[in-house]
Write a structure and sequence with these properties.
By secondary structure, this protein is mainly α. The chain is 74% helix and 0% strand. Belongs to the bZIP family.
Amino acid sequence: MAPSPTPLLLQTSSFPTAATTTATATTATAARPPPTLDIFPAWPMRSLHAPKECSNVTADSTDDSESSSKNNSNHSSDQLGAAANMASQFEQASPQQQLQHKNMATSSTPRTGKALDPKVIRRLAQNREAARKSRLRKKAYIQQLESCKLKLSQMEQDMQRARSQGLFLGGAPGANTSSGAAMFDVEYARWLDDHSRRLAELNGALHAHLADGDLRAIVDDALTHHDELFQLKAMAAKSDVFHLITGVWTTPAERCFLWMGGFRPSDLLKTLLPQLDPLTEQQVVSICNLQQSSQQAEEALSQGLEQLHQSLADTMSGGSLIDEANMSFMSQMALALSKLANLEGFVIQADNLRQQTLHQMHRILTVRQAARCFLAIGEYHNRLRALSSLWASRPREILVNDEGNCEEISIAAQPSQSQFSSF
């Protein structure tokens, strides 16, 4: 009887199955470290890459995957807790510290996170300083423009006040005024404002009984201010001498006492003498000699001006005044223009006489007497200007009464004229 064949035993360990291969891959995946770039993931990366459960996976592979998932979830939860803790600490920090950190980050380090070079930091500081200075210059420029605008409006107000006080001709004020004359009017209005301020300072110093040295400085400043006026008048005489000699730059009351574009030195001395008492005998003699020499110079200038007027009238009346075909008309005009040029010299000489008179009075008088002298001169002209303002601002009732009085005078004068009609 033939022996039965021995059954072949399959060794499963020698030939791996699909289940064994899958379990091995899962274990290798679980043991692999996470990618370098995803250090702080929002959720565990192994849960994303975990393979789906298969029916043929053994119990050991399932347990290994579950344990690795738990470890990854615990690790990610720890990381999330640390991040939340850091965020809460940053929120609890004071706003000032946050601002300081922000400034340090923006000023000392760029966005790349690298520390800046000291030269770059110094250049940035220089740029900030230059920007600050530029803003300051812009602010100063704007303030300068505003101040110039205020000065311009002040000059316009001065011009209007000068016109209202009679500094310009009536009818069309300033219509026939040259540019040099208009500039002189503006400068003269400014000079008057400065003169009022200096007189107030001089008056306060005189009543405060300052020392002679301090008072002398203020008196010398007032004399220098008068010299500036004579310089302005000399420039105006070269541009428009008629503007000065007619006195349209002064008030109506001042024009009554005008002589060659200004005051008479002899009349001014007569006004000042009662205000300077007590005077020594030597001072009285010196002032009388100055007054006499001033009168002689005034007479000489007045005679020269009268001769100029007569010569100018003879030149203009030469030839025929009726015949329009007179060809010597232009030659006569040229001769008259050459004679009018001498008018500027008379005005400048008269101003020199006035200036020398003031300087001589400054030498003769003491410091306190000179202070009272300049105060008296300023107050005298201020009263004349005030008189002109009062005359220009009279109420209309007074004007109507004046017109009525004039009519009564004319009516009363008519019978007397009719009585002598036969003669």
